[in-house]
Amino acid sequence: MANPIPKIVVVGGGAGGLELVTKLGRKLGKKGKAEIKLIDSTHTHIWKPLLHEVAAGTLDSHEDEIEYLAQAMCSGFRFRLGKMDGLDRENKQISVAPTFNAKGVELIPRRTFDYDYLVIAVGSVSHDFDIKGVEKNCLFLDTTAQAEYFQEQLLESYIRTHTQDKPIVEGQLDIAIVGAGATGVELSAQLHEVSHLLTAYGFDELEPSDVKISLIEAADRVLPGLPPNLSEATQKELEKLGINVLTNERVVQVTPKNIKMESGKVIPAAIKVWAAGIKAPDFLKDIGGLETNWINQLVVRQTLQTTLDDNIYAIGDCCACKWIGHDANVPPRAQAAHQMASLTYKSLRNQMAGKALPEYSYHDYGSLVSLGRYSTVGNMMGNLSKGSLMIEGFMARMMYLSLYKMHQVALFGFFRVGMLTISHLFRRSVHPKIKLH
């Protein structure tokens, strides 16, 4: 009797998870060498670094999203809709919570899935640090749905103000973003651009100056995780745009109308965005008895296997992996997830063949931050002890765009990406520059 083919289950269809399951499907699933399954709580994928553009309305998520079912059909894996909420390591099963439709009616019942090898790639969510009022009064950008909701709230605030018969009150159109990491910085620049575009599209009774954008950071500089020269260049660009940058300001409370700081400063704002920290989803905390850290990340060895189970891997933002040569873990970046996906593919093949597993060493190729159409700044070769090469302007913008193209190539191949790029250029020539509904 032939041995059953191994079952590989990947939970989470983000940058790392989708790249991994696509490669596994093409190399193993299509050839009948393994049964590959992807589980995600949503129907579609969009590259997370683009969510700030979805929120601002400069990117229509419905044009750039990837349908998991379509990707599965083309790539040799199976997709199952659902949210993992439990793990039985002894029986090698995961449990997936019921799925409900918009009316609260159960669409898919609770299920379990067997695995021989499990890869958890569920990404991260915002960490509010239990600060009063954040969860109730702030918007978040962890998912496409949250980014789309933000865009709706932004457009509604303009429509409401445009048609009212009384003067604009303080803070009515103001936006405050807490957290000056890449997401906060890029979002602030995109929103500045949108404030000018909306005026051109008919909101001519409102001036761009009516919208005040504040960027609040607890550290002593924007982009605190990146080299100081990059932070300095970015802050100068933001200040040129008229964005109110506040550093060394720790938020202590968020109310429906404003944000209060430890220093006593109060920033009025109608729309408040929280982008000040991340954690792995709460359901991962000690799941299946696995080792997790204080932000729920699964602790892994350099092979990316969890410390207590050789058959369970974790990649991307949801794992805590030592950054070799540094007193820190690998940072939560798209390039790290991409590298982890590539190594895990090799590891799974080696493990199934009884061979030694490679070890993961993060290679920091630098960081790029887009400030919309105004500028792009970045550093190449990473934050090395010997320094790094800083770039900005057109070259930095082209390299920033190439990061997304690399992700697309991993999913579609060079030919399809070329066709998609041409199609995108034609769409941009006939569609409005921002989403207006």
Which labels suit this protein?
single chain; alpha/beta; FAD/NAD(P)-binding domain; 6-stranded mixed β-sheet; 11 helices; 27 strands; globular
Write the layout of secondary structure elements.
Blueprint: E1 7-11, H1 15-29, E2 35-40, E3 44-45, H2 51-56, H3 61-64, E4 66-67, H4 68-75, E5 78-81, E6 83-88, E7 93-97, E8 99-100, E9 106-108, E10 111-114, E11 117-120, E12 125-126, H5 134-137, H6 144-163, E13 175-178, H7 182-200, E14 213-216, H8 228-240, E15 244-246, E16 251-254, E17 258-261, E18 266-268, E19 271-274, E20 278-279, E21 298-299, E22 305-306, E23 309-314, E24 319-320, H9 334-352, E25 366-370, E26 376-380, E27 389-392, H10 394-412, H11 414-430
Parallel strand pairs: 1-2, 1-11, 2-5, 11-23, 13-14, 13-19, 14-15, 21-24
Antiparallel strand pairs: 3-4, 6-7, 7-10, 8-9, 12-20, 16-17, 17-18, 22-23, 25-26, 26-27
Helix pairs in contact: 1-9, 10-11
Question: In a nutshell, what does this entry contain?
Answer:
With 437 residues, this protein is α/β, with parallel strands linked by helices. 33% of the residues lie in helices and 23% in strands.
